[in-house]
Amino acid sequence: MRRAGPTPTTRTPSASLALSWGERFRKMDRDWSGVLRRQEEALLSDWRRAMSDMQSQHDRLVASGRWVTGPSDFLAIIDLARHENTHSRVLKWLLTPTARHGLGCSLAERLVEHCAGKLPSQPLSVREVTFSEWRHGREADLVVWGETFTLIIENKVDAGEQPDQADDLYANFKSETAPLFLFLTPDGREPHTANNPNAQRAFRCISWPSVRRMIEAALAESPSASSSATGVSVVENYLRTLKEQFG
Hints:
Layout: H1 15-63, H2 74-77, H3 84-95, H4 106-116, E1 126-135, E2 138-146, E3 150-155, H5 165-173, E4 179-185, H6 197-202, E5 203-207, H7 208-221, H8 232-246
Parallel strand pairs: 3-4, 4-5
Antiparallel strand pairs: 1-2, 2-3
Helix pairs in contact: 4-7, 7-8
């Protein structure tokens, strides 16, 4: 009879071997984390170096006047680019034919043509331009007094209309020589306070962009504006304001 041999057994990893695998994985994790950390540090170092270079370039451009920001028109610099009375005063200057802009009566001619719907039958003669003309407790922003016409301009930038404003302006100036009423706004809207049918018919509307184009055309066509007038640069700077503020 053959003697039975030993029963086969299945070997399992020892506890010490299992722990060694765990240690290996932890070491791999630490090593990989170290690799990532070194990569991040290298990237951060490169980024800081690049930012430092860009800052240096920026500082050189600023110092040499080649990095510029902010407004370039005078009214915006002094925070008056949306100030209604300031625009009225500049418009008064532009409508005064003897002022140093060299435009003569050309802007007034264009505004009169816009209101009347036709060119003046004879060369325009402007006697006086008044700012803030008061009558019966109501103010007209600008009045252009001509030999054959009177142009009354109500200028709006951001302010709204006062009650009955357009009706009152019409009543106060309707008896002047050939009165023309102009309502000037950023978008050329109609006056809300022209309720009198006669006032509604009398007022013509115009936008600030349209006025800007009239000034540009007058400047381009004026022979004195390119030669003897010393205020041309003021006109050009004001045109920049109008372009920036109203389009």
